[in-house]
Amino acid sequence: MRVEHSATLRIMSDVHSPIEISEALGVRPSAVTHTGDWELEASAHGNEASLEELIRAVTDPLLGLADKLGSLASQGATIELHLTRDLLGPVASSERCK
């Protein structure tokens, strides 16, 4: 069975575009969603990286930017951190629910 971890920091704003968010923070997003949300994302398969390492990958670029993030939030932006851990692949017979 494979394990996939991911961490995503998403900023959603009706006031600021992803470009304006990038300019305000000085950080480029790894993705912009179809709804226009600004995202930093890190993922790993198997034992490539721990969830802690992935959290650091999306939060470290924003260290020291609390005032800028606070400013975006005070102007109506929502800032979310999503963490996932998925078990992928076939389940061994000893692991199946009975």
Question: How are the secondary structure elements laid out?
Answer:
Elements: E1 2-12, H1 18-25, E2 31-32, E3 38-45, H2 51-59, H3 66-74, E4 78-88
Antiparallel strand pairs: 1-3, 1-4, 2-3
- Total number of strands: 4
Oligomer: single chain
Average per-residue pLDDT, rounded, comes to 83
Q: Strand order across the biggest sheet?
A: 2-3-1-4
Secondary-structure element sequence? EHEEHHE
Query: Overall 3D geometry?
Result: elongated
What are the low-pLDDT stretches, counting only 5+ consecutive residues below 50?
A: 92-98
Task: Tally the helices.
Answer: 3
Which sheet architecture does the biggest sheet show? 4 strands, antiparallel
Q: Cα-atom Rg, whole angstroms?
A: 17 Å
Distance between the termini: 18 Å
Helix content: 25-40%
Walk me through this protein's architecture.
With 98 residues, the protein is α+β, with helices and mostly antiparallel strands. Helices cover 27% and strands 33% of the residues. The protein has three helices and four strands; from the N terminus they run βαββααβ. It has a four-stranded antiparallel sheet. Strand 2 and strand 3 form a beta hairpin. The longest helix is centred in the middle third of the chain and has 9 residues. The protein is elongated, with a radius of gyration of 17 Å. 11% of the residues are buried. The C terminus is likely disordered.
